[in-house]
Amino acid sequence: MARTVKDPEERRRELLACAMRLFAEKGYDNVSVRAVAREAGVASGLAYHYFDSKQALFDAAIEEYARQCAERFCSIFADRSLSLDEQLDLAFDLGTKREAFPYADFFHASEHGALHERLSLGICEAVRPSLTAALERDAATRGMPAPDAEMLAGMLVYGSIGLASDGHELGEQTRRAARRYVAALMKEFRHIGERKG
C-alpha cells in the first residue's frame, strides 16, 4: 500500500485534533502518544517526531483547540462588512452557545477547572488583538482616536469569557444585562473618542 505523504503542518494538526478528541473522551491518564498515532492512522515514530511526550502532545492539543475557538471570534472581528455593534452581537452569541465548542463538557467538568482556565485565557489572549483592531477601525471611521481600545478590548474579552465559563447556558435576563453593559462601555468609548478627537 502506498504511503500518504502530507504536509508536516497538516499532519501535526491532524494529530492534535485526534489527541484532543481522545483526551476529552477518555481522559489524560487513558491516552498515550501511541494510541493517538494509532487512531490517526500513522506510525508511533511519526507522532513522537512531533511530540516527544504525552504531556507535550496534551499541551499542544489544548493550545490548538484554543486557537481554533479564538479563530471563530477573530473572523467575526475581521469582517469589515459588519458594523462593530454587529460584530459584538455575533461574538457574544457565539460565546454563549455551548454547541460552538465541541469539548465544552470536558473543559467544564469540575475536575478540569485548571484546564478550563488555561483554555479560557488562551482564547482571550488570541481574541483581544482582533477586537482591539475592530475598535480602532470603528473609531477611525468616526474620525476619532482610540486611545483606550486595547484596555476596552481586554475588559470585553475577559469579562465575556467569565460569563461563558460557568458551564451553563446563559439565561435571557443575564444575556440582556450583559448586552446592556457592553452597550454602555461602547457609548463611553465613543464619547471619550469624541472628546479627544
Automatic annotation (TrEMBL):
Ranges where the HTH tetR-type domain occurs: 9-69
Keywords: DNA-binding, Transcription, Transcription regulation
DNA-binding region extent: 32-51
Superkingdom of the organism of origin: Bacteria
Gene3D superfamilies named among the record's database cross-references: Tetracycline Repressor, domain 2
InterPro entries from the UniProt entry: DNA-bd_HTH_TetR-type_CS (IPR023772), Homeodomain-like_sf (IPR009057), HTH-type_TetR-like_transc_reg (IPR050109), HTH_TetR (IPR001647)
A molecular-function term among this protein's GO annotations: DNA-binding transcription factor activity
Protein name listed in UniProt: TetR family transcriptional regulator
